[in-house]
Amino acid sequence: MGHLLQFPLAFFTPQSGGxxxxxxxxxLYKITLAIALVIFVLVEGALVYALVKFRAxxxxxxxxxxxxxxxxxxxxAAAALILLVLAVITFSKLGAIQNxxxxxxxxxxxxxNGGLLYASAERKLPPNGxxxxxxxxxxxxxxxxxxxxxxxxxGLGAPYSYVEMVVPTETTVTLDxxxxxxxxxxxxPELGGKFQAVPGYHNYTWFKISKPGVFRGQCAxxxxxxHATMRATVRAVTPAQxxxxxxxxxxxxxxxxxxxxxxxxxxxxxxxxxQVENP
Amino acid sequence: xxxxxxxxxxxxxxxxxxxxxxxxxxxxxxxxxxxxxxYMVTTMVxxxxxxxEAMMIRLQLGAPNNTLVxxxxxxxxxxxxxxxxxxxxxxxxxxxxxxxxxxxxxxxxDMAFPRLNALSFWLLLTGGIVFYASLxxxxxxxxxxSVVPLAGINYSPxxxxxxxxxxxxxxxxxxxxxxxxxxxxIANMRARGMSWGxxxxxxxxxxxxxxxLIFALPVIAAAVTMLLTDRHFGTHFFDPAxxxxxxxxxxxxxxxxxxxxxxxxxxxxxxxxEILPVFARKPIFGYKAIxxxxxxxxxxxxxxxxxxxxxxxxxxAILIFVMLSSFLIAVPTGVKILNWIATLWRGTIEYxxxxxxxxxxxxxxxxxxxxxxxxxxxxxxxxxxxxxxxVAHLHFVLMGGAVFTIFAAIYYWFPKITxxxxxxSLGRVSFALMFIGVLLTFLIQHVIGLDGMPRRVYEYDNxxxxxxxxxISTGGSFVIALGVMLTIVNVARSLKSGVVAGPDPWKANTLxxxxxxxxxxxxxxxxxxxxxxxxxxxxxxxxERRSLDGRASGAATVPxxxxxxxx
Lengths: 279, 567
Fold this sequence. Notes:
The structure holds two protein chains of two kinds. By secondary structure, chain A is of the alpha+beta class. Chain A has two domains: 20-54 and 70-98; 132-265, Immunoglobulin-like (Sandwich), CATH 2.60.40. Chain A has three helices and ten strands, in the order H-H-E-E-E-E-E-E-E-E-E-E-H. In chain A, the strands form three sheets. Chain A has a five-stranded mixed beta sheet with strand order 3-2-1-5-8. The longest helix of chain A is centred in the N-terminal third of the chain and has 34 residues, at 20-53. The two termini of chain A are 29 Å apart. Chain B is mainly α. Chain B has a single domain, classed as Cytochrome c oxidase-like, subunit I domain (Cytochrome C Oxidase, Chain A). Chain B has 15 helices and no strands. The radius of gyration of chain B is 24 Å and the shape is globular. The two termini of chain B are 18 Å apart. Chains A and B meet through helix 1 and helix 2 of A and helix 3, helix 7, helix 8, helix 9 and helix 10 of B.
């Protein structure tokens, strides 16, 4: 079993440090936490003060107050104002969290048109339109990653891997999430938020890793008995190492497919049942 | 010169006919009080079962990579726990309290439809039995939200999922009938003079609860029917391979599921609004604001369901709308807490157990409300949703808004139901243990979630301090259990040997304290005229005035128990 996190992280905030979107969420969280702590201290302070100060004593008489319209309008407006401020702060951070930036100068040259199979309004691309687009497919209980580089129409023949996603550093990686069976959720905490992979739908996110490293996560949506073991790893390597890895992956898959084809042909001729279907 | 004339009772079944006893009198009863008691006892039994499931969950998670239960058993445990606590404890417990106390608080002699009322209870019990019967074959394991396709026939072939569907149908029918009954009762059977502006705030909350149930439950009833026909009759509502939508279920479920949160906590808010003024010896601060915020929360509650789906493939415009509507709902909720604090302010606060549970519940709910703001900010939600952060959030909301207020109601109303007081010192210890237990169990779960542990996983690796944090949480859950058990012991002891309460032990404000404890079958021999939102205050004042007059004039004093005023 791998690790959930690579490093022990700050006690009170979500994980970050892998990708700019995770850092911005972490930042937004800290602002919200500061506001929430102030409200908690004020409200709980008032409650505890009232409980101590106004406890029943001999001779004390309760003030028969039924309300105070001005005070009530005042605190309603104050509560609304605090939330308005939080909304404005959220909107100011939204772009940096949602919109992927361009790849860095040292990014992978393979990053082309984002490996688009089709266009989608919901899918966000970097300003220059270039990203490494990986199709993430959730299935009980394993993640599959399909890279660009299909050799046949319909995206067939593309290199892929399971469990461990290898990506180049300094490169904007866009993810296109879907599921083969039940709902799953992609989540590598240090690389940003989680997104459901729903069969029949596409969901999108992105990350950009600056330094080589390993980031761990796991499925975050109940998907059955093996849910807890559906782990994911993202390994960031230099673009050169990535290109080599992808080429090797491609070659190994081609070899395995060739061997399987031969085996099927052999099996078919032995049993006389013709071509056995690809399992 | 004032002379006292004892008014003729309008109805007096008691004393004319002997009260029915024995078990047949319970299964045939249409008396709202007996039905209320059956609701409360049944739901407390389910609360204990759900609690045992929670303890088993915490035991499994008490250590990293634990193998106490199998993955299948673990999934069954959290499915049973969540479903039980929502559908068989909180919602019907509120219905039970409403059943017993709404007619008494509005000066009615029963519910509007007594036989329908009995049907509601027996449907609830049947639903619970059908659901728990699955323990003997194949309990459901798709979670209390039963998200498709996992809950479909291909991935959950066992009958447990069907038992879950029938539970939703039976308890849903029970709740809809009960809600219509409560609405009809409150709308039509109030005492003379009890205008909407004099309705007790608990009754306002129950009225809103009833409306929410009537609007929200048909949606889940339709959804589970579609799930049932998908599973067994070849339809494809939720099957993406045949033109269905896997996402549709989430929309339908949460369209019901979010109002359900308010169905669970609004009656609790109503309880706090009733109990605080009694023990602060002060009127509620801002009656109208509290009643209005109850209605506002209910309305806004129907616009925020998609905040449970921030990570699902839905358009950004929806994310933004739902974030803002969720912010908006925080305003009336926050206002209520400030109104409660202002109610305590400059009062003379008596530290009795019901008050302790109320202010403890307020503190716990405040934490849950604030963590809810984090979850409303959808980019933050992307990190913390579906983790232990959310588990912590929802338990703070429901522990504070529902469980603690229900316990406050138990301590507050036990004297009315049984005629005897619950033990005060045992009650205080029970409160302290439950309060400390909740903080121990759930505060640390925020950190567990932030450290990357998703919910609904049966095992985790010991990275960082996850092992330690989870052990703390498990320890806390045992403290809660001990606190709950002390209250059960308290109830068992006081039933026989509690101090006799009399009709109005707390010097409270509402009409249920006008009648004897326990109330007779017809509730009131005479229903008093209501002149304010606190009729019992008026009545006590009137009695005081009359007895002073009586003494001064030498006329007979008011006989005990004949406290009828303004007839």
